[in-house]
């Protein structure tokens, strides 16, 4: 999801990426090592802040969800994306890949 502001009401508007763009982003995600591990503490505000900062710097990250977290990688991905306005690229097994276009320095050019 790309977060932009509406000129009329200043409420956030989310633009979904297409399946072609998601497929393109998967090629980046396959090469990544997990940057974060989500454990028994779950998805907390501090964790979300760190993920958001990492996405601003890198645009695409991989997260490993540990068994003791009590949620699946897909559930974690959904919670994180909804909380910070990111886009779920892929969830396989215990790992999920997230994307959010950088506001300051966009790196990845989507097709």
Can you summarize this structure?
The chain is of the alpha+beta class. It has helices spanning 19-29, 45-58, 73-84; strands spanning 2-5, 12-15, 36-38, 60-65, 87-92, 95-99. The protein is 33% helix and 25% strand.
Strands of the widest sheet, in order across it, are 3-4-6-5
Mean pLDDT: 87
Structural class category: alpha+beta
Q: How many E strands?
A: 6
Protein described:
The protein is α+β, with helices and mostly antiparallel strands and 111 residues long. The protein is built from three helices and six strands. The strands form two sheets. The protein has a four-stranded mixed sheet, sandwiched between helices. Strands 1-2 form a two-stranded antiparallel ribbon. The chain is globular and about 40 Å long. It starts with a strand and ends in a 12-residue tail after the last strand.
Reconstruct the topology from this structure.
Elements: E1 2-5, E2 12-15, H1 19-29, E3 36-38, H2 45-58, E4 60-65, H3 73-84, E5 87-92, E6 95-99
Parallel strand pairs: 3-4
Antiparallel strand pairs: 1-2, 4-6, 5-6
Core attributes:
111 residues, 4-stranded mixed sheet, two-stranded antiparallel ribbon, 3 helices, globular, 25% strand, alpha+beta
């Amino acid at each position: 999801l790309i977060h932009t502001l509406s000129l009329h009401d200043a409420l956030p508007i989310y633009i979904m990426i297409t399946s072609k763009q998601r497929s393109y982003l998967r090629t980046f995600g396959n090469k990544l090592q997990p940057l974060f591990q989500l454990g028994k503490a779950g998805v907390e505000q501090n964790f979300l802040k760190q993920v958001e900062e990492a996405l601003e710097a890198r645009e695409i990250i991989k997260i490993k969800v540990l068994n003791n977290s009590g949620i699946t990688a897909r559930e974690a991905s959904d919670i994180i994306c909804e909380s910070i306005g990111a886009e779920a690229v892929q969830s396989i097994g215990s790992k999920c890949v997230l994307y959010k276009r950088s506001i300051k320095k966009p790196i990845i050019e989507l097709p």
